[in-house]
Write a structure and sequence with these properties.
mainly alpha; 9 helices; 0% strand
Amino acid sequence: PDTAQNEDGQGKQAAMSWVAGVGAAITIKLSSSIDDVVWLAPFLTNNTSSSARMQNAFIYISVCLTQTCVAMAIAYSGDSLVSMLTKDAKNMWSTDKILTVIAGSLLALYAVKLTYEYVQERMQEASADGDGKEEEDPELEMDEPKVDEAKQTQTLFVIAFLGSVDDLTLFVPMLVGKGFDMVQLVVGGLIAATAIVMLCLFVGLCKPVADCLSKVPLVAIVVVFSVTLLFKACTMD
């Protein structure tokens, strides 16, 4: 009987420890990514089609889960690789700062691309209005939302992937320090990412809010996020 009780106690303790690890992963993911609601909400408003919202939600959650795999790879080799490359340099940036600067810089480059495309579209619209279109092709009008949704999906993937680089700076130390294991990180990350998506969908249910968010240009979202990352990098030691 004593042996059975001990085994039962050990099983409960192991279960509680596992749940605690998942809870830690959820807490870290939410604390580092709750600000994603600001830029993710415009992609999940009721002004977009249901299929587009489902696709955007799937992309965001998939990217978050992909970052957990990247975190595992960095936990085993990332820090040692950076240390090897910078071992002879004095006052070298930390791994966290290097990753954040890279992400912010890549987002800034992507913002330049989106700005160019945005200006070109406005110029084409102005030129078309000046020429005075006599008749519009209804098929072209039906294709425009599809093009916009495809562009939104591409932009969402870039922002989600580069914007979640800062998650790695939290996941990696916890993985190395055995704060949680890979399975706990995946489960916790999935729950937290789903919670963020649900929050964005809830925000998008309010039509005035949805109308306001849908009017925000994609380039503005990317610019603000890239500036935020670079500013965060500047404040790091």
